[in-house]
Amino acid sequence: MAYARVDTATGHDVAGHERSLIPLKVLVAGGFGVGKTTFVASLSEIPPVTTEQQMTELSVGVDETEAVPDKRTTTVAMDFGRITVDEALILYLFGTPGQNRFWFMWDELVRGAVGAVVLVDLRRVDDCFAAIDFFESRGVPFVVAINRFPSSELFGDDAVRQALVLPPDCPLVRVDARNGPSSHDALVALVEHALVRSAAPPVAMR
After folding, report:
1. Beta bridge partners of residue 52, listed in sequence order
2. First and final CA of the chain: distance in angstroms?
């Protein structure tokens, strides 16, 4: 995918030609402190909208910070970013809150979403199960993106798939959420996966 110079306010390209943009909504999900805000910020062509708030003593015993001791803020609603992919496609990124006390928002955020990127921290794989279960139960295409952390152990793709009980057709990618091109590869995998899913014939129910 190549970025296009399109004025999304007018729908015209740099030559002044009118373009019909197709907007797609993508969710970025995962556990607390897994890198969702960073992922959105690394990709967005506009200053990302965030709802991060400073963590206080009220978070002690509620938010698990052992693996991310330097984390000082937390998303309380959502993150938002935008990417113009080409002359006809624009992606709107919505980062979901990771703490379970904010999961009630997921039902609203998932409305109209074409798919999701589920970020995983291999030091805390249990934190991603809620997101995987959520999208599977609603039939939303998703990819699993392993975010690289310096202290993470190295596990092969087969071991990760087995640990997460992933469907055979679910893409598994490895990303550095701080790096735009790396995060972009996860979006490419998601869009391709969603297109394949949408083209598949419906399964007969018995």
Report:
1. 75
2. 40
- Asked whether residue 205 is assigned to any structural domain, the reply reads no
What pTM value is reported for the model?
0.76
Cα-only R_g, the chain: 17
Q: What is the mean pLDDT of the chain?
A: 80
Taking every pair of Cα atoms in the chain, the longest distance, rounded to a whole number of angstroms, is 56
Structure tokens at 96: 């979901």
Residue 84's closest CA among 165, 6, 178, 184?
6
Q: What is the CATH number of the domain that holds 137?
A: 3.40.50.300
Summarised one tens digit per residue, pLDDT across range 106-146 is: 888 899 999 999 999 999 999 999 999 999 999 999 999 99
Residue 121: which of 66, 81, 77 has the closest Cα? 66
